[in-house]
Write a structure and sequence with these properties.
It is a single chain. The protein is of the alpha/beta class. The protein has two domains: about 1-125 and about 305-370, NAD(P)-binding Rossmann-like Domain (Rossmann fold, 3-Layer(aba) Sandwich); about 130-305, NAD(P)-binding Rossmann-like Domain (Rossmann fold). About 35% of the residues lie in helices and about 15% in strands. The protein has twelve helices and 15 strands. The chain has an eight-stranded mixed β-sheet, sandwiched between helices. The chain has a seven-stranded mixed β-sheet with strand order 9-8-7-10-11-13-12, sandwiched between helices. A hairpin with a 2-residue loop joins strand 12 (about 285-290) and strand 13. It is globular and about 65 Å long.
């Protein structure tokens, strides 16, 4: 199969979807890999590294999209990329369709076969979301600690305090991968951490493995409101696979929070779990609502592209290889995991959570697969 890797064009997105090592494997397996010139530079991979691995470097995105039977990306296609996509072409990337009806409708209109990293399930895990969730969770604390500095507009509090001075209080909403990594980082810096989740088994596990400066609390609307007045930093880390994030913090709840406290909503690319959050960029990451600072960068791992690109390719490469070997139809019918990754196939919505988010018709992936040969 002809596999194309374009340069990411989302603002301050420095990752690339494939490392030279990944390109080498795909070429060895009999595929042709086409990468846009400069696509890997910000992740530490010059064009020569790809040509040495057997890939072909093309001058621009138009050439990559026109040549490739499958496009492998990091982030969702942006409007200027929509016209480059075509009927029957495979798209494999983070899509986050439930956060954007415009994007969903655009993918339907292309007639392409869109597979999403973030909905691919193995058992009850999301292995292609996990590595970026690990990065984002850790970065949420780095970012939150910085925004808490008075020079950034924050409270002027050091997360871990110092002897004789109280620690900052960090509230983590969600006990999944993002929340766990965020809590570990905050605990490591010495903060007073509270984690909230609705899964009692998960809370029991976290209670056993987290450091002593982390406590767990069962999440209810009342419990969230009770903890907000004490929090210096709130991390939104809630995920519903493929679906829009639930709103755990409402606009009226902000009045409960301290002036100049900070919210970091990692769930913003799924619509956010804080009602007042909307996507920002690394260039302008923070805005203020009701005296609370909001950090809502939708591609946080893009700031550490070397780490993120290698972690992402490690996770996605075997599935990229499977799709290339099987094609879209067989990938769905022969792989339960890839069937869960299918979101929009030949103009049909094949992810139930996406369909429910917008009141669209849901069609089972295997039904659509039979129609595309």
């Amino acid at each position: 199969m002809k596999i194309g890797v374009p340069t990411e064009i989302k603002p301050q997105e420095n990752r690339v979807a494939l490392t030279p090592a990944g390109a080498d494997r795909l070429v060895t397996e009999g595929n042709e890999v086409f990468i846009q010139s400069g696509a890997g530079v910000n992740s530490g991979f010059p064009d020569k590294a790809y040509t040495d691995a057997g890939a072909t470097v093309l001058a621009d995105a138009d050439a990559v999209f026109a040549t490739a039977e499958m496009i492998v990306k990091v982030k969702e296609p942006l409007p200027e990329e929509f016209p480059r996509m075509r009927e029957g072409q495979i798209m494999f990337t983070y899509l986050h369709l439930a956060a954007s009806k415009e994007l969903t409708e655009a993918m339907i209109a292309t007639g392409s076969h869109c597979f999403a990293y973030e909905t691919l399930e193995v058992g009850r895990t999301l292995p292609l979301l996990t590595p970026m969730s690990e990065v984002a969770g850790r970065m949420a604390i780095q970012a939150g600690a910085k925004v808490l500095e008075r020079s950034q507009g924050g409270l002027g509090i050091l997360l871990g305090g110092v002897p004789g001075v109280k620690r900052a209080k960090v509230l983590v909403l969600g006990g999944g991968v993002v929340g766990t990594q965020a809590a570990r980082m905050a605990c490591g810096l010495g903060a007073d951490v509270t984690m909230m989740d609705i899964d009692l088994d998960r809370l029991r596990y976290l209670d056993d493995v987290m450091p002593k400066n982390c406590r767990t609390v069962y999440s209810t609307s009342l419990a969230v409101r009770e903890h907000l007045p004490h929090a210096d930093l709130v991390v939104g880390a809630v995920l519903i696979p493929g679906g829009a994030a639930p709103k755990l913090v409402r606009r009226e709840d902000l009045k409960l929070m301290k002036k100049n406290s900070v919210i970091v909503d990692v769930a913003v690319d799924q619509g956010g779990c804080v009602e007042t959050c909307s996507p920002t960029t690394h260039a302008d990451p923070v805005f203020i609502v009701d005296d609370v600072l909001h950090y809502c960068v939708a591609n946080m791992p893009g700031a550490v592209p070397q780490t993120s690109t290698m972690a992402l390719t490690n996770a996605t490469l075997s599935y990229t290889s499977q799709i290339a070997r099987l094609g879209a139809s067989a990938a769905i019918t022969e792989s339960n995991e890839l069937a869960t990754a299918s979101n929009v196939i030949a103009g049909q919505v094949t992810c139930r959570a996406v369909a429910e988010a917008f009141g669209m018709e849901y069609v089972r992936p295997e039904v659509v697969a039979k129609t595309i040969g």
